[in-house]
Design brief:
By secondary structure, the protein is of the alpha+beta class. Helix 1 packs antiparallel against helix 2. The termini are far apart. About 40% of the residues lie in helices and about 20% in strands.
Length: about 90
């Protein structure tokens, strides 16, 4: 049975990073455009309120879930390493 979390009133499966990334993107957009507060509830005992003051942290969490989603779907990361030989 999937474990559900509540992100701004939307129930999302915690094991689906793509669904969480999408819900967090929506929450981030709401906060950025209206300056409101969005609530995330992980269970009956733990909830986080996101607001303009911690918008950077929300972006970091969203990016983590987007990377997990990309890894789950087999997409490569957009980051490339470069190697340079120096004599």
């Amino acid at each position: 049975m999937p474990t559900m979390v509540l992100i701004d009133g939307i129930s999302v499966d915690i094991d689906d990073p793509c669904a969480i990334a999408t819900a967090l993107r929506v929450a981030e957009l709401k906060i950025a455009t209206s300056g409101g507060v969005v609530m995330t509830r992980f269970d009956d005992n733990h909830e986080v309120r996101w607001g303009r003051a911690n918008l950077d942290r929300l972006a970091t969490v969203r990016a983590q879930y987007e990377r997990a989603c990309a890894a789950k779907s087999g997409q490569q990361s957009r980051f490339a390493k470069r190697l340079r030989f120096v004599r």
